[in-house]
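Project standup — Tuesday

K.O.: blocked on the structure for the chain from last sprint. Re-posting the sequence here as requested.
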Amino acid sequence: MLAKLTIRKYLEADWIVTCKIHDQARPLELAGSCDARGFVPLAEDQGDILEFKRCVKHVACIADEVVGFVGTNKTEVSWLYVDPRFHGQGIGRKLLQRGLSQINNKASTYVLEGNSSARKLYESVGFKVIQQFDSKNNGYICSVLKLVQ
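H.V.: unblocked you, prediction finished:
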């Protein structure tokens, strides 16, 4: 299936589908790290919308269907989500590689402690955990890891 995978720059017309991908994948990301009540749909989270808009974004497509996206802001990988129907197929890795190509210096990211698949992906390309701390996600405490490359 990855032979049909393409990655292109994000277009404003991708907003609805990227929100849908985020909203389907975010509860999986929160599991084991944060109270599920901390979930807020992307289109309703003003802080996340502003952060999203500041990022350089790319989307992964199979045929004409957007199946994931990555966003970077300066030296940080701020967004990396894949439609759960396509997990485990290397799409996240391809998106991460594209995102890292936008960063010229040492990259960083934040991962929820219980998100073992994301942590494994980042560690497989040289990221290391440098800090663990508690933070709040929409009022609910989460355990967060800061990783740097």
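K.O.: great, moving the ticket to review. The mean pLDDT is 94. The helical segments are 15-30, 46-54, 91-101, 116-124.
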